[in-house]
Amino acid sequence: MASLRKLKGKWYVRVRFNNAKEKLIPTYSGDERIAKQKLRLIQDKEFLVKAKLLEEFELEPLTLRDAKEKFLAYCKRKNLRVGTIDSYTTSIENLFNILKPSGSVRTLTNQTIHKLQDHLTGRKLKETSININLRSIRAFSNWLFREKHTLKKVNIEFMKVDKSLPKFLLPDELEKIYSLCEDDKMKSTFRVYEHLGLRLEELHHCVREDDFVKVTAKNAKSRRDRIVPLPAKVQDDFDIATTDPYRTERISKTFTRLRKKAGIGDEKSLHSLRHTFAIRMLVETSDVKLVKDMLGHSDIKTTELYLNFPPDYLKSVLTRKKDEHAQIAIAVA
Question: Which of 59, 81, 102 is the last residue of a domain?
Fold first, then answer.
């Protein structure tokens, strides 16, 4: 059975195998209480090594680099969305700005999380983006604990985020962006997002079925199939946009450039086209459950956020441009 041994002020776990070979595993601590905790963790694995269910090297603390690869492989076996795995990968890479990839997973502590948060804040990331990183690291830490690579989960406190209303685009703002867009295919792409309420990556993972568009479960955020009506006025746009579609990065960057050129505030983005679709559908149908299904929300509470807008206000702002055009036409006549 594994036991403790102290050398030069640090505790080591001594493991003796059936062939009488001895192995010393560092605990990296001079605290006997912590050393005993790590001893118990190794004792749990010692039986599996002797039963040849684990390799000897697996008794030693896992490096962060190896842990990352094992964790991502686990995520793929669970069939998580590609976007989720990409988010986990990016967040762990950000963690490597704080911790050495060659270091032990046991260097991931509460203090590390504080340093990571300060690092991300220094990069001027928004609170929501920082929280995405923290959620990913929490998932990573929970996996390490379940697999007994660490003694406990890290404690993560998320940043407070002000709850603001969804940022949708007004008719005159849409008109400015479309008038500035000289790329007809890109213009069709924007119109598809506006009239189908797609998330950015979903353009590449949807198919047309007559007058409807199907977003497949594997690529939907909610992991469920959903069907969205395809209005006649954007059917040609859909065919153009989905034939050898532009990369999502190009779509997003082009929209940002045109939005700035149109003098529209930074609080609005390409995702605002999805909000615009949601607002318009809510006004037209007055059916929050239907809008929830078209957006692919897993929880109706997410959709109910749009109910915070007074209906009369929405009807007013969504028809304002139409009324202005009508008044101009009457004046000309």
Answer: 59
Strand positions, DSSP E, 237-295: none
Residue-by-residue DSSP string for 202-229:
GGGGEEEETTEEEE-GGGSTTSS-EEEE
Task: Give the domain CATH number at 243.
Answer: 1.10.443.10
pLDDT, tens only, 56-101: 555 566 889 999 999 999 999 998 888 899 999 999 999 999 999 9
Look at the block and give the residue holding tokens 């076996």: 77
How many domains are contained in the chain? 3
- Domain region containing 41: 3-59
| Same-domain check for residues 70 and 92 | yes
Residue 192 lies in a domain: yes
Question: What would the pLDDT profile of 151-163 be if each residue is shown by its tens digit?
Answer: 788 999 999 987 7
Q: Give the number of other Cβ atoms within 10 Å of residue 273's Cβ.
A: 25
Domain membership of residue 156 (yes or no) is no
154 within domain boundaries:
no
What is the greatest pairwise CA distance in the chain? 102
Query: For all residues of the chain together, what is the average pLDDT?
Result: 87
d(CA 186, CA 208): 19
Residue closest to 141 by CA, chosen among 92, 102, 90? 92
Give the pair of three-digit tokens for residue 38: 């790590």
Compute the Cα dihedral for 72, 77, 78, 80 and give only its sign: positive
Say whether both 214 and 266 belong to one domain: yes
Tell me whether residue 71 is in a domain. yes
The C-alpha atoms of residue 198 and residue 296 are separated, in whole angstroms, by 9
Give the residue among 19, 318, 2 at the shortest CA–CA distance from 170: 318
Beta bridge partners, 10, equal 7
193/229 same-domain check? yes
Query: Three-state DSSP class for 26?
Result: strand
- Are 174 and 275 in contact by the 8 Å Cβ rule? The answer is no
pLDDT at 19 over 70: no
